[in-house]
Design goal:
The protein has 507 residues and is mainly α. The protein is 39% helix and 8% strand. The chain has helices at 2-13, 40-48, 59-63, 72-77, 84-90, 105-122, 130-155, 186-200, 220-233, 237-250, 295-298, 320-323, 332-337, 342-345, 372-385, 389-400, 417-431, 437-444, 492-497, and strands at 55-56, 167-170, 183-185, 208-209, 212-213, 267-271, 278-282, 308-310, 338-339, 357-358, 365-367, 456-460, 475-479. Helix 6 (105-122) runs antiparallel to helix 7, helix 15 packs antiparallel against helix 17 and helix 16 packs parallel to helix 17. It is globular and about 70 Å long. One of its GO terms (cellular component) is cell outer membrane. Keywords: Cell outer membrane, Membrane, Signal. Its main location: membrane. Residues 23-232 form the SusD-like N-terminal domain.
């Protein structure tokens, strides 16, 4: 943890050009040579550096659910592109993942927390308008709440009143080196998240400014959107409905996949090279076009808060169970986001092995911050769980009409509460694969409704720290409802750097 703090201080105080986008930023953040924070403008420039905040490289969320579809036939088709670490996340390992050298999610979220703490420390000491200071503090509280929520949903057990004394997270609330780093109880972590959320609610900055959404910074719609997500996770459906409605009242823009989506750059791949070689054209959505700049991502109209799930190996591999949830003939999300033959792009060309990939922004990023689509899904679920199943279907269908080709298949109906909940949860999975499934399974298994429980299992080869034993018989791996493995292993480096103050999860 001390290493993270040192790196963050260097990052925050070193002179550097903060990135901007002329199309969406009124003012491009500029280079500063000052090592002393004296103005609100400097703190704003720090928080405008969206490249340091947007990415969430959470391998647990990506690889550890039934949305991810790595099977032995796919693995055997080209073993070299799948590391043992991928297999370990896929099968809920506890023995080896703590040594994953690429496990950056923990440290990157604590860097965001450090920056938030820095803003909170300086906001009342610098010069600038009082309103600017108040918004900076609210912004920092949202960053801190959001990052602690993401970390808790990955590295700790799902919260309930009976688990309050379970190990939580190190609570860093200052930039001091000597602040304790031992894990606070889980109850204290959620108390801190809720306290930060309450402070973030004081934000006065609207999402739309000068006619454009400013979603890379905290805003009123973003705070309400995160509050809706938080209270849904806590099974407080009345509160979740309240804040989802408030977010939607401010901003309700949806992309109509019938008229506003299109294909972008195609890629031509040669398979089975040699005398029987063929060329295959892979069709990608337009959101795939711009990898190096942020035009597509910043411009996505549904964002309330700009955050992205980011997977460095570039293959969100959908399971057959996930793909079978779609009406593949009429659901435009399947048409645009599931790229047929994507396995060829990943090198499975000799011999050719055909399997799709899920693509949103380029090949590695999917929206994970609150969006208008998520707010509609939260609203629909909260309505269904509070016995308004007819209202839930109306809300759900207002999303589906923007995602499906016109026809009788668009509007869903429900026979009652349980049927409505089932349909809403299936729509969540179709709309937000990979991004929310890990968090959703955790909460489904820890609420009072036994009908939505999910027990995941996968069949795969055994493995060691460094290799997959593909010549040995396969075995079944499972994640039961109350498994302690719903808390992912913490990085061993954090336990070492803390001199043992940070303790590993027990399994």
């Amino acid at each position: 943890m001390k290493t993270i703090i040192k790196n963050c201080i260097a990052l925050a105080l070193t002179a550097g050009l903060l990135p901007g986008c002329d199309k969406f930023l009124d003012e491009r953040p500029s280079k500063t040579s000052s090592l002393v924070v004296t103005t609100t403008s400097q703190l704003n420039a720090l928080l405008n550096d969206y490249e340091q905040f947007y990415a969430e490289s959470n391998n647990t969320a990506i690889l550890s659910t039934d949305d991810y579809g790595l099977t032995t036939p796919i693995y055997d088709a080209r073993q070299g592109i799948f590391s043992p670490i991928t297999v370990q996340y896929n099968t809920w390992d506890t023995a080896y993942l703590m040594d994953d050298p690429g496990q950056s999610f923990w440290s990157s979220e604590y860097r965001k927390i450090f920056t938030a703490n820095m803003v909170l420390q300086y906001a009342d000491k610098v010069t600038g308008p009082d309103e600017d200071k108040a918004n900076l503090k609210a912004d920092a509280h949202l960053i801190r709440a959001y990052s602690y929520f993401q970390l808790a949903n990955t590295f700790t057990l799902p919260y309930s009143s009976s688990k309050g004394d379970e190990p939580g997270l190190p609570l860093k609330l200052t930039i001091a080196f000597d602040e304790p780093v031992a894990r606070a109880p889980l109850s204290k972590v959620y108390e801190q998240i809720e306290a930060d959320l309450a402070e973030a609610m004081k934000i006065k900055m609207p999402l739309i400014q000068n006619g454009k959404p400013r979603h890379w910074r905290a805003n009123t719609a973003a705070v309400n959107g995160f509050a809706a997500r938080y209270y849904l996770a806590m099974n407080k459906y009345t509160d979740a409905l309240k804040y989802a409605n408030q977010a939607l009242q401010e901003y309700s823009m949806l992309v109509d996949y019938n008229t506003q989506m299109r294909y972008g750059r195609d890629e031509v791949v040669t398979i089975n090279p040699g005398p029987n070689a063929q060329t295959v054209t892979l069709k990608y959505p337009y959101t795939h076009d711009n990898q190096e700049d942020f035009t597509d991502m910043i411009g996505w109209p549904e964002f309330l808060y700009f955050r992205m799930l980011d997977y460095g190996t570039w293959w969100y591999m959908p399971s057959t169970a996930l793909m079978n949830l779609y009406d593949q003939a009429h659901d435009l999300r399947y048409q645009y986001h599931y790229v047929e033959g994507y396995s060829y792009d990943r090198g499975m060309i000799d011999p050719a092995y055909n399997y799709p990939g899920y693509i949103f922004f380029f090949k590695d990023r999917i929206p994970s911050g609150p969006t208008t689509a998520e707010m509609l899904l939260i609203k629909a679920e909260a309505q269904a769980r509070t016995d308004d199943f007819s209202g839930a279907m109306t809300t759900l269908n207002s999303l589906r009409v923007k995602r499906m080709t016109p026809g009788p298949w668009v509007n869903l109906t429900a026979t009652g509460k349980d049927d409505a909940i089932k349909k809403v949860l299936e729509e969540r999975r179709r709309e937000m694969p990979f991004v929310h499934r890990w968090y959703d399974v955790r909460r489904y298994n820890n609420n009072d409704d036994p009908n939505d429980d999910v027990e995941m299992s996968k069949t795969f080869y055994p493995y060691t720290l460094s290799s997959v034993l593909s010549t040995q018989p396969v075995k079944t791996y499972s994640l039961p409802k109350h498994s302690r493995r719903f808390a992912a292993p913490l990085p061993r480096t954090e336990m070492i750097s803390s001199n043992g103050a940070i303790q590993q999860n027990t399994y």
